[in-house]
Amino acid sequence: MNRTVVTIQQLSEQMGLTSRTLRHWEAEGLFHSGRDSSSGWRTYDEDALQCIRITALLRRMDIPIKEIQPVVERKSVFELIRVIENRIAALQVHQKGLKRVEQQLLHTLEYLNITNKRTSVLEELLNEMENVFMSNVTERSTFKVITLPAMRVAFHIVVDVSPEDKAMGPLMDWLKSATLLGTARLFGGNMKPMPSSTGKPYGYGMCATIPEGVVVPEPFQEMLLPGGLYAKLDSDEDIGGSWNNLMNQLSHSKKYTSDPTRLCLEEHIRNDHPENSGNLYDLNLLEPVKAK
């Protein structure tokens, strides 16, 4: 059997996929990675690479992960055909819905052109349309405001073209050896230099809550997260899109606004995947806020 492997950094550069995306796909059970004993990086053999190619191709067609799973499991052309046919059928239904929306827009435009209403009436109409739009956004994914307590944390910051694993791995190993992994809350976030483009180094920090009295070993450092009010949103696979969704909702909020004096966070929540099945964490996005 061919045992050629590539690292997560090499794969990110070759395929233009972020390490976060690869960890998410692995967490969904689409493939399995190994570990490089010297660097601790995830590695991928030829079977995993084929699954990643299939997944990347089908995700570009906007096919959901749950429909991709049987394709990578069976690696069957017939399964691939079935998934694509189902996607075409879903798109046809979607197109019918778009056609209805188009007709509604045309009727509205015709009404406005005929009646030539005054500005005040138009403003009322715009307000109604904006309210409908925002209610649809809320139904799709709504942030909640929570209060985090002040927390003592150990943290690790790495600057690299793919820093998440390097920041998270050593910290997780220490927490496990210190029997703290089961009780620690885990937070991450981008640090300076901020991400700019694929292949350029950027910073990522990972921190874990620790009890008083626990000595933080090198190379980790200690700090106090101040806590306070945060807008919380569960992230989907598109983490950048989820952040944009959260910030867009905050920009329309009448009660809260972002608080730039505190760090935004990504809390890593343990999921139900068994150990060694991939990334064991989902993400909650946490944007510090204050009342208007």
Automatic annotation (TrEMBL):
Q: Which CDD domains match?
A: HTH_MerR-like (cd00592)
Q: Which UniProt keywords apply?
A: DNA-binding, Transcription, Transcription regulation
Transcription in keyword set: yes
Q: Name one Pfam family in it.
A: Cass2
InterPro entries, alphabetized = AraC_E-bd, Cass2, DNA-bd_dom_put_sf, MerR-type_HTH_dom, MerR_fam, Reg_factor_effector_dom_sf
Q: Which residues form the HTH merR-type domain?
A: 5-74
The keyword NADP belongs to this UniProt entry's keyword annotation: no
Against PANTHER family, the record matches this protein to:
HEAVY METAL-DEPENDENT TRANSCRIPTIONAL REGULATOR HI_0293-RELATED, REDOX-CYCLING DRUG-SENSING TRANSCRIPTIONAL ACTIVATOR SOXR
Name the UniProt record assigns to this protein: MerR family transcriptional regulator
This protein's species is: Paenibacillus tritici
Lineage of producing organism:
Bacteria, Bacillati, Bacillota, Bacilli, Bacillales
